[in-house]
Amino acid sequence: MKMQKITKAVIAIAGYGTRFLPATKVQPKEMLSIIDKPVIQYIVEELIDSGIKDIIMVTRGQYTLESHFDNNIDLEVFLEKNNKTEILKELIQLPKKANYIYVRQKKHLPYGNGTPLLVAKNLIKDEENFVYVFGDDLVKSKTPGTAQLIDYSYKNPSKIIIATQNVAKSDVSKYGIVKLGKDNKTVENIIEKPKIEDAPTTLATFGRFILNKEVITELSKKKIGKDRELWLMDAISTLAKQNKVISLNIEGLWLTTGDPLNFIITTLEYAKDRKDLWEGIKKYINGI
User: What would the 3-class secondary structure string for 102-166 be?
Assistant: First the structure.
């Protein structure tokens, strides 16, 4: 089966960010900065570097996010007058690198990480495979995490692809945990946040997927799951029983920014790459 090139992505950015209140009262948690760049920009740059052209962001109407990927003429004039050419070039280029589409998640829809796909469904063609991304997961890797998924998908064009990595056994209750078939790639089942004793493996899903309209059709049935939420994993698990889902163990460092502790850890991981920061950070930590 020949597969069309994957050039479209949907990013889920419709959560409330309650673990970061009051910082997220008027801005999405995805706009919180890892050093000097918001989380969402790291994700967008990964998508662009993976060949994505159309980026659909499902939001709650967070205008600061929309403004971030638009031009700011006053700021650009100021930077030009003050010879801040390097950062000026970056700011000017970002709005041009992709087609940014913003869709607001309606309040009448159920809450859950599957809901943004219902919001974006009319923007997805019936025969189209696309990338789905959670707005608080980052991947540090030589080859972008999304590019790894896309390349793997071209070799398996009729399959749903889920990104996975092994986690500590003590952490399985935080994630969707995958049970694989005998070929070690076909997904037989996904258990959402199981108890340690109920986890079939330590292979956890994280926020990178290659999906198709079948997943959206399944979610459209609005089968509410655990904690009265609409879970993407419930829809994928249903399709896994039809032998339509495979797993790819992503190479690279998977980082989550969904809570304050992991946000700080992620910041430190990116600070390691900054010569202007890391020595000072190490000196401070050693002095504590």
Answer: EEECCCCCCCCCCHHHHHHHHHCCCCCCEEEEECCEEEECCCCHHHHHHHHHHHCCCCEEEEEEE
Tokens of 131: 């990338």
> Which amino acid is it at 127?
E
- Dihedral (Cα; 230, 132, 18, 39), 10-degree rounding: 180
pTM: 0.92
Let me know if residue 140 belongs to a domain: yes
> What is the domain count for the chain?
1
* Summary mean pLDDT of the chain: 90
Residue 146 covered by a domain: yes
The predicted structure's pLDDT at residue 2: 56
Domain that holds residue 70: 8-287
User: Which amino acid, 251?
Assistant: E
Q: Is 204 a domain residue? A: yes
Phi, psi (deg, nearest 5) at residue 38: -65, 150
Residue 3 in any domain: the answer is no
Instruction: Catalogue the E-assigned strands of the chain.
Output: 8-13, 33-34, 37-38, 54-59, 99-104, 130-134, 137-140, 160-166, 176-180, 187-192, 203-211, 245-249, 253-256
pLDDT at 61: 74
Distance CA 288, CA 31 (A): 30
- Tens of pLDDT, residues 100-109: 999 998 878 7
- Torsion angle of C-alpha atoms 130, 136, 140, 144, degrees rounded to 10: 10
Residue 216: CATH number of its domain: 3.90.550.10
Does pLDDT of 226 surpass 80? Answer: no
Distance separating alpha carbons of residues 112 and 14, to the nearest angstrom: 9
